[in-house]
Structure formats: C-alpha cells, structure tokens
Amino acid sequence: MAGVTLEQVTQTFAQQVAVAGVSFHIPDGQFWVLMGPSGCGKSTILRTIAGLIPVQTGRVFLGERCVNQVPPQERDVAMVFQNYALYPHFTVAENLAFGLKMRGVPHPERQKRVQWVAELLGLTHLLRQKPGQLSGGQQQRVALGRAMVRSPQVFLMDEPLSNLDSRLRDQTRAELKRLHQQLHITTLYVTHDQTEAMTLADQLVVMHQGQIQQLGPPQELYAQPLNKTVASFLGNPPMNFLPAWLFPGLPTEIEVGIRPEAIEITAPGTGQLQGQVIVVEPLGDVTLGQVQVNGGELWVKTPKSVSLGETVGLALPVNQRYYFCTRTGQRIAEAGLKL
Ligand SMILES: Nc1ncnc2c1ncn2[C@@H]1O[C@H](COP(=O)(O)OP(=O)(O)O)[C@@H](O)[C@H]1O
Ligand SMILES: [Mg+2]
Q: Which domains does the chain have, with CATH numbers?
C-alpha cells in the first residue's frame, strides 16, 4: 500500500485551468473524499493520479515514488467510475478475473482472488451470471470487485454510487466503509453526496474552480468553514445567509450565516426575527420549514411542528452564527453584531 501526494499540480485544457496548484498528502491507508460543484476539477485530479492525463505542472507521488513519467498500467492504482463498463459477454467471474488475466496472474491464483472478492462483496451466487442479468446495484458491486481483486495500492473512485437508487446507495456506502476498515487501502473518493462525504471521509477536501477551499475532518469543515463556499456546500438544506452591516470604523457589508438546524422556532414576538412560514416539509423526525423574514427566506430544521401561513419567532443562537465578508466570501471573526 502507499500514500498519495500531489505537489502543486496544475492541469490546463485549451487554456482553461481545470486544476490550479493543488497540493495534498493522503497518508497510507486513509480514506479521503473530494467534493465540489460540477466542473471544479475532481475527475481531472483522479485521472491525473491514475496516469490517464499526463501531469503538466507539479508532481504526483505514489508512496515515495514520483510517478509523473510512469504509465497507468505500472501505477498499481485501480479506478472505479460512475459509468462502470462491464464486459457484457463475460460472466461475473470472467469480468472479475479479466484484469488479473491481462497481468498474467496464473489461473489458480486468479480463481482464489475472484472467490475472495466475490465473498467480500456478496457476489458468490452471481459468478456465472452475465452483467445483463444483474440489477444496477449488483453490476456496481462487480465494478468495485473488479477494482478490488487486484489489491491495488490505491483506489480512486469517481462518484461510484451515483447511479444507484437511494436504498442500494445506503447499503453500498456502508459496505464500502466496512471494506475499507478491513483492507485499509488508500482511497480517494469523489462524490456529490453529503452523507457519503460525512460518513466515509477521514479527511474531506472541498474544491471550487480548480482550487482547494478547505481540507480537514468532515465535522471540522461543517462546524468551522473558512468561507462561504464551504459553508454552503455542507449541510442540507444549506446554511442560510442574511445581509448585515458591521461597524468597526468604516461600515462593511457582511453576511450572517446560520444553519437551518441551529435556528429555534419561538413564539411570535420573541427571538431575533419574526416571519411567516411559507413552506412546510415534514420529514418524519424533523420538519423543514421555510420562513419569510425581512431580508430573505430562511430554512429551518426543527423537531417542532409548524403550519403553513403561521407567524413564528426565530431565535438565532449567538454561538451558532457565522460571519462572512460579502466581497471576498471569507469568514470573519465573530463580532458583537446586532441583527
Ligand atoms: N479532456 C478535457 N478536455 C477539455 N476540457 C476538459 C477535459 N477534461 C476536463 N475538462 C474541463 O476541466 C474542468 C474540470 O473538469 P472535471 O475535472 O471533469 O470536473 P468535475 O469532475 O469536478 O466535474 C471542466 O471545466 C471541464 O470542462
Ligand atoms: Mg467528474
């Protein structure tokens, strides 16, 4: 196994910078998650590590070894894509064994490894089936198995669960976590999904426009976002923002951020704000409500029941507020602000 290191990697396509000076070091055996809006450079980073795109600027290391000049097949990295292409005329067993066969692994060893990975992923009873006879979830497990059967040094996964329905996704996510705890193979995993990011990541990297916005344990990024991009990316519904002014010398336009789950519903006339409930979405354990206040609409996630059209007070606990510079989006130190 090996860690993965990127040193100031920049990748440009047709004069457009896709990845801009990205550096990080994934220690051996950790599971890292890469998140960010579409087009921010996530896939480009994975493809660069896999060797599918040559490094234009910077260096990529697998373990201690700089692999800039090493072809993909010699990198011992396995990649799982969102659109996994299984060979339709091969059985599951043949699909799983194919990569090993190409690498000249002898038959008995191939069989042993295929059995091992099939058991790990619950595919044993499907080994003689063809991909067309499998559900989407089973096909995706075969795609994962195909990557795992080689016991690579590094896994790269590009939104591997995004084609699955939500129940299968939950199940496969839990399976992935268990597999990682068992195998400890260094993994870089790209997702759009909050739950995947929060539950799988040892460290979470949020990117925007080719640059790392923040890197850290997922709970830390959620609780201590450095800027508005990170603050609005984590949390569902996302953090609310309200315009405000700060008066330390020259008046500065800022935004106050507060998460829907931090707002408390109070009696009308109490709390810092008052407004009318304009959307109600009961989720079972909690209710999502949107409240129209002076200056905008706020999402609220509350265990209380609220009714459409109701006037409510909103308490915004001081220690749950975040302040951002409107111009730069950077988080600024808490200030004794009055809303
Ligand atoms: N082979 C390519 N040729 C030209 N532009 C590309 C190529 N691959 C990616 N890009 C561009 O680079 C940027 C980052 O793409 P990508 O890494 O696929 O983003 P993500 O995976 O985060 O959605 C996008 O603007 C995309 O259009
Ligand atoms: Mg992508």
A: 4-225 (3.40.50.300), 236-332 (2.40.50.140)
